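User: My collaborator sent over this chain with a note saying "see what the structure looks like." That's all I know about it. Can you take a look?
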Amino acid sequence: MSDSLNEYRQAIWPLPAAQRNAEGEPRRLGIELEFIGLPLERVAECLVTVFGGEREEISDYECLVHSPDLGEFTVELDFSYLKRRGRERQAGNEGLEDLAEGVIALVAKRLVPVEIVAPPIAMRDLWRLEDLIREVRAAGARGTRDAAHFAFGLHLNPEMPALDAATVQRDRQAFMCLYRWLMQRSAVDVSRRLTPYIDPYPKKYVQELLQSAAPGDTSELIDQYLAHNPTRNRALDMLPLFAHLDEERVRATVDDPRIKPRPTLHYRLPNCQIDEPQWALVHAWRDWLQLEALATDPARLAAACEDCAQRAGSWSEQLFGNWAEAAYRWVVPELL
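Assistant: Without extra context I'll predict from the sequence alone. Here is the result:
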């Protein structure tokens, strides 16, 4: 593509107010895309076509694509049992489970999503991922709305600008204030609402956090979170970040090997509608930036928290209030 077209595409991907991390380096973001309709080999070909590099096979259910300038992409069938069996066979450990594996794999490849896990990419370069979406879409990928039982998501893993307790607190409060609005904007599919993977925070925890004073330290935040959320199944999963800050404290309550410590949030709300031409990553990104904009505006955040706490404590608002509509007062029109 021409340089001018790429400059235009880059311009429609706005950047957050906080563009650097605690070490002063440009902030990065990882994404995870779930879809169906393509074998792993074809997905890997799409990655190589768009970003160059080479494919490395891990097993029948996992492979890597090493991009020379963006890093290591993982392509995998999102099924822990099959990935374990595939690695065992690669190591020469075959056995009685082989027949069961074959049957399960046959069914899984029709129902279980393929997942692309992107490496952390500088936020200023995220626009380049849209080329991957177009390539995979053209190859035949199918997303959340292709069938009633598909519950495929797009996950965003934004690096934190700082790791102090106040910054972490503000991000969670902003998410709670905008949660209903984000649900509406994301048009979260019914199939995904029925699964536990993107459950909302418990009401008691929401009320506590909206009315909390500035935290003393991150251990206080972690303990409060784990008391109410001893699970990965949250629309905004804090466990990767909290494990990065204090892994021993997190593992003592939630000893799940899928928790990977990293200095990021794990936002799991958006659908993956990769087969729909009007769908684009930038939409979910712009919605996420609304959260960051609110979190970095103390006066607006305080007003939003007070308003949401009052709504959360009102039975009439619980039953009849339009929280999503009310949250529009806290968004920045220029980012829509």
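A starting point for your reply to your collaborator: The chain has 14 helices and nine strands.
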